[in-house]
Amino acid sequence: MDTHEQQAVNTTIKSIAGNAALAIIKGLGGYFGNSYALIADAIESTSDIFSSALVLFGIKYSSKPPDSNHPYGHGRAEPLITFLVVGFLVASATIIAIESIRNINTPHELPKPFTLIILSVIIFIKELFYRMVVKKGQLLNSSSLKADAWHHRSDAITSLTAFIGISVALILGKGYETADDWAALIAAIVILYNSYLIFRPALGEIMDENFYDELINKIRQVSLTVNGVDGTEKCYVRKTGMKFHVDLHVRIDGNLSVMNGHAIAHELKSTLKKELPELAGVLIHIEPTEY
Question: Class of the 3-206 domain?
């Protein structure tokens, strides 16, 4: 496992540990503080534990080297794991929504004021986790880490809506006990929307959509620094895990021998992989330059 994969694993392990601790705090706070919004938050944090464990598995599996059955490696496991993470998000949002509606129609007591202190701390911690994980996800080109980051952001949002709902219930008093439950219902809707935001890029990755214009421009620029390369034509990029595979057409002097063209192609491939370490494989196709 290279440095990037190890960083992703370390980040995910921190996510699992943080979610486990927060799930316990939220669950106890919601139970003793009479707040279903906080209990709903605990449910989401519990689902986060399982989804982060899936992300951990996906990162480790996708980092396996290519073999005879998987010549391009195992990187496509990562967006598949992302789909499972989205499934956990949708499931937790559905459970929260159903329980919220049930509680709205059931008379109950006002939440306890101390739940606001718990929520304030949780919002701060989850936002810090979101920023940490999304930064790693962007740095390592990991769709599953980005999905895990959005788990933290959605958790922060549900905690914020819970804070608002409990505040409304406590300020307005008797008759507004359900504000807490309405907050949980709104949080469920937000989670569903975030699920789509996570799902869409992962689907594009599976379908080989072109999201990589910036990387393609870098590939073209680096290619022109190699002696013997006159220009570039077609350039296709597809993502597998945290790495990229490139199909590149380049122009060289058509009067050169096959051996010389072969040498230029090898030099270009070596240069691209050295200058752009995120490239896992580079396939060079030679075109003759017409003078």
Answer: mainly alpha
